[in-house]
Amino acid sequence: MEEKNEFNKQLIKMQDWSEELNNQIPQIHESFIKLDSIVEKALESNKPDDILTKAYFLFIHSLKELKGTGRNITALSEFFYVRYVLKYLEKHLGIKFKTQHPKKRKSVYFIASINKNKIFLSSDISIKDAGISKMPDIFVGIKKDEKSIYPIAIFEIKLHQSKKKISNLITRFLNYQDDLKQNKSNLWNEGLPYFIWLYQNYARYEGQNFDEEFLQFRKSIKNSWLLVNEITKWTSDKYENYIKCYNKDSKVPNGSINTILKEIAKKIQNF
Questions:
Q1: What is the SS3 assignment for 207?
Q2: Is 66 helix (H, G, I), strand (E, B) or coil?
Q3: Number of structural domains, the chain?
Q4: What DSSP state is assigned to residue 15?
Q5: How far apart are CA 227 and CA 256, in angstroms?
C-alpha cells in the first residue's frame, strides 16, 4: 500500500510538471491536437491509408526543408497509426480509452471497458501478461483479470527496408507466434490473434521487389494480414500510390486498414 501511494505521488508530480510546461509552451500541445485532427479526417475518409501516409511524408519533407534531413523520425508513422487504431475502436465499439501509468515504466498504455471486459491497447512495450517479451508497434488485447491478457491483434508498421530487415521482421512475427503458443495462461478459444504487417514501400520505382517476402509472410504466419502502400512516385509536384491488402489466403479487393480493423472490432465484440 505504501509503495502504491508513493507511485501515485510521483505520478501527480509528473502531471503537474507537464501541465506547467504546457502553460509555458502551449504550442507543443496545440501541435499534437492539430496532428490528431489529421487522424480524425482519416477516420471519416474511405481512403484513410492515403491520408495517414501523405501526412507522414509531408512531415518528412517539411523536416528536410527546415533542418536538412527527415531521417530518424519513423516513430511518427507509428503515432498516426496508433492514434487511428485507438480512435477507430472508440468510434465503432462505442468505448473511450483512458491512459494508464504502470509502475516502473516510462511508457503508458490505454484501457477501455466493454461487455464486462477491458480492452488493452499499447505501443512499443512488452506484454508479459500475454506471453510477449518483445515490443510490438501496436498490441490490442482483452484483459480478463489482473494476471492474463488475451491477445487480439499484433501490428508491425514498417517503412521501406532491405530484404534482410524484412526477413528479420518475419522471424519476429514467428517468435510472437511461438511465444503465444507456449503461454498456457492465455484463454485460447479462436486460435492465435491477428498478425498485421503495415508496410509503406516507396522504392518500388527504383527496381525493388518484395513479392517473395510478402508471400512468405502470408504463408508462414497464421491469421496474417498484410497491407502494402506502394508509393510509385514521390516528387515535389506529384504523388502516386496504390493500396494492396491481403489476408492469409488471398488479395482483398478494395481492402484498407479499415478492412482489418473491422475484423478486430468484431472479434472484440464476440469475445
A1: coil
A2: helix
A3: 1
A4: H
A5: 7
Q: Report yes or no on 264 lying in a domain.
A: yes
C-alpha cell at 253: 479487393
On the 0-12 / 13-18 / 19+ scale of CB atoms within 10 A, 122 is buried
Split at pLDDT 50, 70, 90, the class of 105 is low
Is 198 within 8 Å of 173 (Cβ atoms)? no
Side chain identity, residue 62 = S
Q: What is the CATH number of the domain that holds 196?
A: 3.40.91
Place of cell 494508464: 100
pTM score over 0.85: yes
Domain membership flag for residue 15 = no
| Segments forming the whole domain that contains residue 221 | 40-269
* Average pLDDT score over residue span 246-250: 91
Q: Please, what is the angle between helix 257-269 and helix 48-67, to 10°?
A: 120
CA distance 247 to 242: 17
User: Cα–Cα–Cα angle for 123, 124, 128, nearest 5°?
Assistant: 95
- 250: its cell numbers: 488471398
Whether 245 is in a domain gets the answer yes
Task: Quote the cell numbers at residue 9.
Answer: 505521488
Is residue 255 situated within a structural domain? yes
Instruction: Give the C-alpha separation, 124 to 77, whole Å.
Output: 13
